[in-house]
Design a protein that fits this description.
- The structure is a single chain.
- By secondary structure, this protein is an alpha+beta fold.
- The chain is 25% helix and 26% strand.
- The chain has 7 helices and 18 strands.
- It has helices at residues 103-113, 146-149, 155-173, 214-224, 269-278, 293-304, 311-323; strands at 13-17, 20-23, 27-32, 42-46, 49-55, 72-76, 80-85, 89-95, 122-128, 133-139, 144-145, 176-177, 179-180, 212-213, 236-239, 248-251, 254-258, 265-267.
- The strands form 5 sheets. It has a 5-stranded antiparallel beta sheet, with no helix packed on it. The chain has a 5-stranded antiparallel beta sheet with strand order 6-7-8-10-9, with helices on one face.
- The protein starts with 12 loop residues before the first strand and ends with a helix.
């Protein structure tokens, strides 16, 4: 069921003045003059400026700005949005559900276990339980998305970037688990492997899956579609699961950042190449001449590097999923 969060995701951050933002139900972000501000939850340098987060004081009266410049740079449906804060930081807001992994914990996991993979620097994160959403402040990575740069890249540069992403996938897949789970053992947010949502389920509420053993995941898939032809295997391999061109930052045709780790988890091996082949998130957004170019290049390279795909088996499962509702 399509419905907005309360309040809607697009007003999770409200600009009060050119120097101050209201974030969620009770947190204020503001540009301050001193490099070590008092009463700060956290502070950070941004060029010549200093920003701090603080709790809204009891009884503090705030007046909203005219709304002409909020800093909103992206809004994804009813459950995700991103704001620019200052010159060098972003705040990412996502719908929250009990049992979900914090993206910041996954980023910390990658920094510890695969330090060669470039990830954003986390400034601060928190859960706003009153508004059922998470806030994640990240330092900006210098560069452009692969999507924006694609038309300017030569064919050999595109292949070099895909080869580097496959190298990162191989590194992540060297980290395995006997369970389908997040980095810290929580449920996985992967709508492609879930049953079809009931028509009464609000569209903004995430539906995490698991954590599951191999047997339990196989049962979950077969319960969704009895004639399931998806072999989950006995081991699960860590995978980003959303390596589309808008989540890869490049500079001078070099990969300098991988964004959006909220779906990263231990997956069945077949899913690593399969997801790249079937998800529209792997399609180019700006270059309409061949929207599937990145999906095809990456999928082919993953298969050539030992990650078998099962697109036909997945689509068969998905059709049964829809039929068996």
């Amino acid at each position: 069921m399509f419905c907005e969060m309360t309040p809607p995701i697009g007003v999770s951050i409200r600009r009060l003045t050119p120097e101050r933002w209201m974030m969620g139900s009770s947190t204020i972000c503001e540009r301050v003059m001193t490099p070590n501000p008092a009463n700060a939850i956290v502070s950070w340098e941004d060029g010549d400026d200093t920003f701090r987060l603080r709790e809204r004081a009891e009884g503090e009266i705030l007046s909203l700005g005219d709304g002409s410049e909020t800093g909103l740079v992206h809004e994804g449906g009813t459950s995700a949005a991103v704001w620019s804060i200052g010159a060098n930081a972003f705040c990412k807001v996502k719908a929250w559900h009990k049992g979900m992994e914090l993206e910041s914990k996954t980023i910390a996991f990658i920094r510890e276990n695969a330090p060669e993979i470039p990830v954003p620097e986390v400034i601060y994160t928190w859960i706003d339980h009153e508004w059922n959403r998470t806030f994640l402040i990240l330092r900006r990575i210098r560069g452009q998305t692969l999507d924006n740069e694609w038309s300017r890249l030569a064919p050999n540069q595109r292949l070099q970037i895909a080869s580097k992403i496959v190298e990162y996938c191989r590194k992540l897949a060297s980290i395995s688990s006997c369970r389908f789970e997040s980095a810290a053992g929580r449920a996985v947010v992967e709508p492609f492997l879930h049953s079809m949502a009931d028509v009464s389920h609000p569209s903004w509420i995430p539906r995490p899956i698991g954590p599951f053993s191999s047997t339990a995941l196989a049962f979950h898939l077969s319960a969704v579609a009895p004639e399931c032809d998806l072999d989950v295997g006995s081991l699960f391999y860590f995978y980003h699961a959303d390596l589309g061109p808008t989540n890869i930052i490049v500079l001078d045709s070099t990969v300098v950042g991988i964004l959006d780790w909220e779906s990263a988890a231990y997956y069945p091996k077949f899913w690593i190449a399969t997801k790249a082949r079937l998800s529209a998130g792997f399609y180019l957004q700006n270059d309409r001449t061949d929207r599937k170019a990145w999906s095809c290049i990456l999928g082919q390279m993953l298969e050539a590097n030992g990650f078998p795909q099962n697109v036909d088996g997945y689509y068969k499962w998905r059709r049964q999923n829809a039929f068996c509702r």
